[in-house]
Amino acid sequence: MQRVLTVGNGIAVVADDSWSALQGRDALEIVWDEGSHAGLTTEAIWRQIDDAASRPGHVSRRDGDVAGALAGAATRMSATYRDSFQAHASVEPQNAIAKVSPGRCEIWAPTQNPQRVQREVGQLLGIPAANVTVHVTLIGGGFGRRLGVDYATEAAEVARAVGRPVQIVWSRADDFQHDRLHPAGRVDIEAGLDQSGKLIAWKHRFASLHLSMFGPFDPNAVDSPDVDPWGGYDNPYAIPNLSAEWNTVEAPVHTGAWRSVEYPPNVFARECFLDEIAHRVGRDPLDLRRQLLSGSFPFASRQVDRSQLAVVLELAASKAGWGTALPDRPGRRSARGIACNVYHGRTHLAHVAEVSVGEQGDVRVHRIVTAADCGQVVNALGLEGQVESGVAWGLSYALKSEITIRNGRVEQTSYKDFPVLSIQEMPSVELFTVASSKVPRGFGEQPVPPVAPAVANAIFAATGKRVRRVPIRPEDLI
Fold this sequence. Notes:
- The structure is a single chain.
- By secondary structure, the protein is α+β, with helices and mostly antiparallel strands.
- The chain has two domains: 3-33 and 94-169, Aldehyde oxidase/xanthine dehydrogenase, molybdopterin binding domain (Aldehyde Oxidoreductase, domain 4, 2-Layer Sandwich); 185-477, Aldehyde oxidase/xanthine dehydrogenase, molybdopterin binding domain (Aldehyde Oxidoreductase, domain 4, 2-Layer Sandwich).
- Helix content is 28%, strand content 27%.
- The chain contains eleven helices and 20 strands.
- Strands 3-11-10-9-4-20 form a six-stranded mixed sheet. Strands 7-6-5-8 form a four-stranded mixed sheet, with helices on one face. Strands 14-15-16-19 form a four-stranded mixed sheet.
- A hairpin with a 2-residue loop joins strand 17 and strand 18 (409-410).
- Helix 4 runs parallel beside helix 5 (150-162), helix 7 (263-281) packs parallel to helix 11 (451-463) and helix 10 (380-399) crosses helix 11.
């Protein structure tokens, strides 16, 4: 170990190699100023979110008269859904190389946003952004985490201080405990049915934390066009009276974009609640969705044709054998569940999950059948890889992973206490695409959001137990 430096985000240990630097890090005895959040806990953050959920939010979509339709409904239903803090947990921890010379800087970094690296490194060093050259390396897993550039600016800061090129390498524990976390979120949905059981009103409310990765909290900030909350604003179903609103609070921990951002909590809630309605009125969940997929719905300035989603739903259901008998699994209860989504008004996707639940509430996902309309497919193997990785990501979120806060710190430090899906837990994944000559519409995040609700809906069909929070806990299914 050569020296220890104070940098903007903490302490940097400088050594000839990464092993020596990490050993030096572990040997340090540091007394930190714990700051105003020294006693922060997950429970305290949830109190903030629950308080936000109790207040009127910003309304981004209002079709018809939701309040009037709910007041006159023959049947009213409501439910609250929660999702947890999540880490990005990329296989390669944060790292970057920087070389600083008079008036210039050269950076090698696994970044999703090289332009932001240029800007922020330039600001740090007091040089024009054009004088910062960024070489984008293989990313080692981004998932939104590497939209932030803190590790790159650290490299530049240390390189300037020591007067020679340096490589910053975060430890695994630092990568977990100083992540830009996917924030916990709460979704409240209320619906009204008429005397015939027809869905006539839907009110969707989302409360969560501001994404601090993108700048300071501004309670009055509204994007233009405002399409928040993703998965609530762009509800694809034909409901005559529908509203969507959101409320965010300032994040007391670092937060940021995570694979598919707002869609997982909102699609989880929306698709599970629709299944609850189907059960209440005695309808097959697929059949209810069919009924609600005529016409179009808005996304920003566009109208999105619902019939495309109907096509992928039918394709997924057909290929999965929806309504047919499942294999006998002694000691386990088996069923299928279905869920779908349209990502940013472009990529239409549906999953059917084949799931079994043991007597102790242990969940096994045996098969995921995916159907998608994503425009013209250019790289079929790449598409398959995105579906498989999206399913693995979605199942980790649904069944295993959770970040908790205690005494102002993230408690998890490795994959040991933040488990992700293992290879023996991976289900078979079958992908079917709709032939199209339209331009490709993207497929990186799109498979993730419907995974958790498809699994949760299958769990209810198998056990009669409703799932309204992720990760799904075995004790809730006994």
